[in-house]
Amino acid sequence: MKLLGIVILYYPDDSVVKNIATYLAQLDELMLWDNTPATDRRDLDLDSLEDGRGKIILDGCGENLGIGSALNKAVAYARANGFTHLLTLDQDSCFGERNFESYLRAIRSYGEDKAAIFSTNYFIKSQQTTMYPPTDSVDEVYSAMTSGSIYPVSLFDTLGDFMESLFVWGVDCEFCWRAKRKDIPVLCFKNILLTHDLGYQKKKRRLLGKEVFPNEYGPARSYYNVRNGILLHRLYPEALNLKSHLRYHFYKRVVFIILYERQKFSKLWALLCGYRDGLRGKSGKWK
Which of 12, 42, 74, 189 shows a CA-CA span of 20 to 30 A to 33? Predict the structure, then answer.
C-alpha cells in the first residue's frame, strides 16, 4: 500500500497539527489543501511534526473551492505519483494512540486490493458516544463520512471523481451511494475509532420538556445541507429520505435558529435559498 492522505483546511487552528500527528507517521505523503481565502490564511507550526519532514505538501489557490474539488486535486496527484490508496480526513479529526496503525493492519488483513471503500467507526466528541457499537466485526454500511475513509485509487477509474458541484455537504455520501449501485461495498471497521465532531454543536437545550442539541451551522453550510439534500434525493431516492432530511435540516433548524442561534436572519435566508435552489436543480457554489 502506497498511501496518500489529504486534509482539507478551512480557517484551521493549532489543534490541526496535533491531529495530524496521530496518523502522519504511517502515511507516505500528506497533502494539506487550504480552502481558506488567501487574505485570512495563517501559518501552522508544521516543523513540530517529527514525522513530517519531506512528507507534507502544502497546496491551495487562495479561495474556497469546496470539498469535492479539493479531494479531486488529491485524486489527480495520487494517480500521477503512483499511490495505491487515498486517505481523506477533516481537520478536526484524530486517531487514538496506535489506532491508525491498527486500521491499516486491518485493511491489509481484509484485502487492501479489494474493490471497496474502507471506513472507521466514529467517536462523536460533542455527544461522547460512538456512531456504532464498537465490535471486532467488519460490516457493510450504506455510507461513510469523508473523514477517516480510505479509497483504493483504482476505484476512481471505475466510479469517476468526487462530485464537485455539491461543493460541501453530501460529497462523501454521494460517492458511497454511487459505489453501492456498482456493487462496491462500504466497509466499516467498527473497532477502529476516529474522534470526530458533527457540525458546530455548542450547547444542549430544553424544548417542550426534551433535551435537544442544535447543530449551529453557519449560513453557507445551512444552505448546502438543504439544497444538496433535495438534489441527492433526485439522484438517489433509494438512499435519501427527503422528508426526514428536511425535517432535520430545514424545519427543526428554523425552530432552533429562531429560539437559540445567532445570525438569525442570514441563516433563515440561507435555508430558504437552499430550498428554492434545490427545487430548481441548481448546484455549484452559492453566490
Answer: 189
